[in-house]
Amino acid sequence: xxxxxxxxxxxxxxxxxxxxxxxxxxxxxxxxxxxxxxxxxxxxxxxxxxxxxxxxxxxxxxxxxxxxxxxxxxxxxxxxxxxxxxxxxxxxxxxxxxxxxxxxxxxxxxxxxxxxxxxxxxxxxxxxxxxxxxxxxxxxxxxxxxxxxxxxxxxxxxxxxxxxxxxxxxxxxxxxxxxxxxxxxxxxxxxxxxxxxxxxxxxxxxxxxxxxxxxxxxxxxxxxxxxxxxxxxxxxxxxxxxxxxxxxxxxxxxxxxxxxxxxxxxxxxxxxxxxxxxxxxxxxxxxxxxxxxxxxxxxxxxxxxxxxxxxxxxxxxx
Length: 318
Hints:
By secondary structure, this protein is α/β, with parallel strands linked by helices. It has helices spanning 40-60, 96-104, 113-124, 189-199, 214-222, 226-250, 265-279, 282-286, 299-316; strands at residues 3-10, 14-20, 26-33, 64-72, 75-76, 81-84, 94-95, 108-112, 133-138, 142-148, 151-153, 254-258, 289-292. Helices cover 39% and strands 22% of the residues.
């Protein structure tokens, strides 16, 4: 009988689920609002309804669900305990994996959403060529996941790979995490726009307040606007400098960059590569490839399925 997996991508706005086979093909999708503002119980009912829909789709194929994997933004222990989720506060202190196992009877796992994106890229996307790599998503913030020797590295408590919260300016901008000068305050869509507002001519900023976004900055840069190009260079230098330290520490084979800002990777890459070349041992830098992510919006769903598949395999082969 065909064994399928449920991948779940949980966000503050959207709740997405997918039925996935062992090769990474998505066979059925479900999408709704997370409704987290209504509280934990209401959210969990929506989640269980989505799972029931996918179970019905699997049954119609004559297949069996072998496991569930869910990604949540925040600090998540390996056992599925959600310590803190800024966008999903009603889930703080909640063990989602244990809840899903109890309510569905299926093997269930839960992890940080960026870690699951890394797992998805490793299993089904750009990470297949690498044994060790970091996967970075640049959007509203900067998320990351580490693959070391072919396995997701989550550290002693499951909380590792918070690359976005590496301090790059000790007295720098305040970060919602409570620190100052975190990398994601300088490498994100918001950081790009902030730099562009400082560097663009005033006539290009004459529109409605708040109208400028990262897509517009990229369009200006592609049109040759010096201020927009300088904003990408500034952000690329910050990212490249931080990556050089990471590469010198871990000697990775690859850096995979995804997220909304990654659509402009070609504008970032020259400054990123220059900083790595300047700050990293040449033997380490030359052995590392910087490539775009491949899975797009499906990375979290496929990462959830990959987590379920991996945990099932671990249980079968302890």
